[in-house]
Amino acid sequence: MKSKGSSEDLNLIALAKLRELIDLDNELLPAWKTEVLRVLRNDVPEDIAPLEALLRGETDDPVKDA
Amino acid sequence: MIRLRTLKAKGCRGILDGPDLEFGKDGVVLVGDNGTGKSSYIDALEKVLTGKCGSLDTGDQGLSWARQGKHVASKSAPQIELVLSDGSKDFSVTQDGPSGPANIHVGAMLSAARRQSFLLRRRTLLAFINAKPADRYKAVADFLQLERFNALESKLRALSTQCQGQITGQKTAKQVEEIALRQQLGISLPALIDTETCLAQLNKILGKAGLAILDDLESASIRMEQVEVQLAPFSKMEEFQKVQLLKTLISELPPLDQLREVESAYHVARKKTQDEEAKLRGNFYQQVLEEGVKWIQADSLETCPLCESTIDPTKILQRVEARLNEHATLTAFRDDQDLARAKFVSALRALYDALVLLRRKWTEGLRTNFPDAAESLIELLDQLVARHSTLQGREVIEDDSEALSEANPNSVARGLSAQVEAKLQTYPSSERYEVLTKAKSTLHAITINWNRLNGAQTEISRLETARSQIQRIVELAEKARKEAVQQLLDQIATHADRYFQNVHPGENIGSPALKVTDRGTASIDLTCVFHKKSGDPRGCYSEGHVDSLGLCIFLAIRRFHHSHDSDLSLLVLDDVLHSVDGEHRMATAKLILKEFSDHQIVITTHDPLWFENLKAVASAAARTFSYHRIAGWSLTTGPVWGDHLSDYEWLTSDESLTAMPADRVIKAGRLLEQMLQHLCDGLSVPVPFSLRGRYTLDPLWTSFLPKAKKNKEFYAAAGPQLDKIEELRGLRNLVGAHYNEWANYLTANESKELTDAIVTLRDRVYCPKCNEFIKRIAGLEGVWSCKGEHLRFKA
Questions:
Q1: Is a pLDDT exceeding 60 seen at residue B740?
Q2: Which of B453, B544, B701, B782 has the fewest other C-beta atoms within 10 Å?
């Protein structure tokens, strides 16, 4: 992830801000919050499969599944 | 650092075949009138560095490099080669990419050129300022390079869309179940399908079936079991229905009394016919009678050929007519007889067919043999149908009638009916069966459709929660992106303001603010301060200030790019700063050379003074630029290089000291003409009108000189030069504007005197600080001055 260029920096800045906003958000249900943060902490925004699983109702407890 | 060394172009835009553009270590400054090919070099440079040409590949219809990239007179495709150097080795790049051995630094530079903003054209100078906020964001989106984060946002949005699709699917499924429930329970719109309504309607149906009502819909499955028990006796309902069919068929048997009637009618008709036939003695037939009459008439017989008695034709005809009348009655009787026979046969056949059908269903329904009496009746009917299809005698009819009576169809029908009724008595009530069946199907609908409907509703609720959560995440992602971009834009705006304050110190303007708005997914508002008030810069800034702001924002973006990725150290300004005045242009030149000392700089301009400013600033800063002046352009030659020194620069250079006297006078004359054009314009000196708008030296000088003499302070300062020029200006006419043979007679002394006078006059009227000639100042009557009043002459 670490490489030269503004693009990477700004992507990371935006991701960090998103993590911060989600952490502070009271409207997000705990399951969703946990799941989104799990996606973001991996710094792999391409991978939203866990969110898709959550949407499909395949998991109610992301912490346990993780 | 990779530097540009030479740009070679052929058949490209306005360049037919060179000349090559050589770059100095720190860059190049290119001056030339409009339409002489300056921007062609810039287009070629951009094309070879980025693969695109921003002035052509705009996406506008009919405009593209493929169409207009080629020189109009060239038959081959444009050829561009850029020679780069790392200080020790040269590398070549064409529009097809690097040629020769690959170099990692060259590759990185080209890659950076495709990503970064490094070129500003006049036409794009204000694009960012003039753009709508959303377009302004698009303009910076490329260099933000937030692709990975944007991908995350896109996927989240797609997830939201996918979720919405699932909700729609569930709503459709719910609707299907609702329709089924409405149909089954008999609940029509606008009544709602809810627990209360469904329970009330179900209980109504259960009540009709004599079943206990329910307290809740969940108990429907239990009640279903009870209904199944009560429906058990109706398990042979299929058999019941078959017996019920037999009853229907018996009831539909042709009326038996009617059979007796038609049989009797047939008998009567037959009897009447036969009696009439017996009455007609001799069996006269119509044909015989008619033929006999014809024979008598044809032969005109007067006597009978048998008995030779006299024939009276009139009487014979009367007797024949009477006989024929008697026969007509017989014919009518025969018609009646045929009709009665057809009806009789039809009645027999109808009864036969109905009994045969009944016999076939009899075995299926009662599972017993068809009664013998009924079988005999069928057999008899079959015989009668066959026999009476042709005409029979009265005796036969009477015999058959007797046989039919003996068969007693009424008795047979009653017997059949009695057996069927007896069987039906063994089944429970069919009405009961119907209400129980209705109750069962309703309970089934509740257990299946109601549960599915509730399942769909639950799923919809779950999905809507999920969607609201995803939507929330999308909003947060958008907010995070905007905050990140804002952080970056703040840095750019700070840089832009610093640059702007450098150019416009103490002017109470600037402080550009780029704010990512909350409106839409991406927009940028631009505001600036004008004497402590913030607003759209276009609302209160002069044209020059707006131009200057556009340049500073661009420079800030360039600096931002370079600070993050220094593979490309190039700044290209193509004829920008039209409306910025001399003093600010000077400041701008200093700013660019100072702030971008780590860049190679390419500047084109059509303004010779700006060209001189740049050279002066570059020289003072000991920067190594190459300078080119395009002297002219034609379709067949392309750009033609001229001497890059201006006339003033040349006249004050060492080179002019050893030059031919005529050359010095020619250049001095041209400098004087340019000076006078500026002075007459700026000092509002009336000059005799020229239709072509070309004001040559003589009318300019003869108009200016009297005015100059009237300004006491100016004449005191420049009087000797004015007088000398007036004395010697004929020399200039002698040599003309260009070299000719008269010039050979010009002495070095004469040349020096005139040249020195003109150069000194130029120093009196041109302010290098303000970068402008003296002019009339509004509000200062009779004062000739530069803007900063460094040169000031009062009349």
A1: no
A2: B782
- Asked if residue A1 belongs to a domain, the reply is no
pTM here? Answer: 0.58
Cα Dmax for chain A: 40
**pLDDT 10s digits, B749-766:** 888 999 999 999 999 999
In a domain, A35, yes or no: yes
Inspect the interface and report whether the beta carbons of A32 and B481 lie closer than 8 Å: no
> In which domain, by residue range, is A15 found?
6-65
Percent of chain B topping pLDDT 90:
33
Domain membership of residue A61 (yes or no) is: yes
* ipTM summary value: 0.86
Residue in A4, A32, A48 nearest the CB of B469: A32
Distance, CA of B274 to CA of B396 (rounded, Å): 14
**Domain count within chain A:** 1
Nearest CB to B565 within list A5, A10, A54: A5
Q: Give residue limits of the domains in chain B.
A: 253-424, 650-794
Inform me whether the pLDDT recorded for A28 exceeds 80.
yes
Q: Which residue reads 């009087």 in tokens?
A: B719
Confidence of residue B348 (pLDDT cuts 50, 70, 90): very high
- Residue B389 and residue B352 in contact, taking contact as beta carbons nearer than 8 Å: no
Query: Residues B360-389: pLDDT tens digits?
Result: 999 888 888 999 999 999 999 999 999 998
Question: Which of A1, A18, A47 best probes binding to B when mutated, by most B CB atoms within 10 angstroms?
Answer: A18
d(CA B355, CA B363): 13
Query: Residue B3 in 3-state DSSP?
Result: strand
CB contact under 8 Å between B143 and A4, yes or no, is no
Contacts of B469 in chain A (CB under 8 A): 28-29, 32
| CA separation for the pair B627, B32 (Å, rounded) | 11
Nearest-Cα distance to chain B for A51, in Å, is 8
